[in-house]
């Protein structure tokens, strides 16, 4: 009788949240895409030919087997070997000099019509300030004709020394990025034009491509954009079933977690809407480690987050609210992967400053490298920087019981899709360049 009463109370609570729940997510909420271009983009996405040393692809750090992420706190870019937690920092002269400064975000639902910022600090946004449709690190040098923010985003890892470009002395692409950011892209386009297997695919995908010479970096980026925007559309989770009217789609713990999420937990304050993110920026006192994403005039290893884009002191240490869809598949968590589990990340939110004080380097498992270990925790060990990070908190402490936390974890697991998490097309077995596919 007591159990029945508890279930009835839970049902009443969850039904009472109906007005707070997001609308049902559907295909109509996403931008249109071209299937021929997406199929071409799939090949480009996994082709190492886009990297300076031809040793890493977009798919290396956003892999189908790893739910469109890489499973690492901080990525290991060009020069590393393997994927996921088996990836190493490389060997010999090709080994990496620095870790990628931030965690590789998952790519689910980036084709949604409401996506307005990308990257952890939002340094890419939809904005025609430079006459090319986007406010980006390339400013006026970003080429015109990019169809979506996802297409624009695809261009930037190619220009990053640690991610795909490589060192200036190693290859022409690494050297070109030191001259001006847009000097990289014509060199990549020339590589693609010289691969016979790609030319028919571009001709089939684009009416304005009639011959090899017509292929540009814009065609390449738009193809990758159509692939990413269409490949990982995910709205087939148990929660989606519940939103669609199936009251049995969530079990009791998941429903109880939903009540906490939209109620006393206050999670919906930032993780709102159908994508479970308000796309805004918040400081959470997450412990710093790794090389940091330093600004040109920074004299120390650190990451000031959104402030690096806006130059506003109030934006220091703020990072973009991530979508929670499929988050159970994309550990570790935080802009630098500071926490290995959803429960740890939830508990940090309950009292960020106390959690900051308790955090230790043993919590994070970085691919081993004694050279990099010397600076991995430099920011955390600097007393002044440590205090600045600790003091930057935009959320208030919340008192939740252990049961509440476990129920929240159950609810977040109920945001995991079913068939959608494997992608629409999947990873190709080979690519036209003939280079190995990770």
Q: How does this model look, in words?
A:
34% of the residues lie in helices and 3% in strands. It has 438 residues and is mainly α. The longest helix is centred in the N-terminal third of the chain and has 15 residues, at 2-16. It has helices spanning 2-16, 35-45, 58-61, 149-154, 161-165, 172-176, 184-193, 199-205, 217-231, 238-243, 252-262, 307-310, 342-350, 352-358, 370-376, 378-381, 383-391, 402-413; strands spanning 117-118, 124-126, 134-135, 281-283, 318-320. The chain has two domains: 2-26 and 236-413, Cytochrome Bc1 Complex, Chain D, domain 2 (Orthogonal Bundle), CATH 1.10.760.10; 31-69 and 105-233, Cytochrome c-like domain (Cytochrome Bc1 Complex, Chain D, domain 2), CATH 1.10.760. The radius of gyration is 22 Å and the shape is globular. It contains 18 helices and five strands.
CATH class placement of the largest domain: Mainly Alpha
- CA(first)-CA(last) distance: 56 Å
**Main sheet specs:** 3 strands, antiparallel
Strand order of the largest sheet: 1-2-3
Strand runs, count? 5
Structural class: mainly alpha
Strand content: under 5%
Low-confidence stretches: 1-6
User: If you average the pLDDT, what whole number results?
Assistant: 95
Q: So, CATH architecture of the largest domain?
A: Orthogonal Bundle
Query: Number of domains in the coordinates?
Result: 2
Gyration radius (Cα, Å) is 22 Å
CATH topology title of the largest domain? Cytochrome Bc1 Complex, Chain D, domain 2
Shape: globular
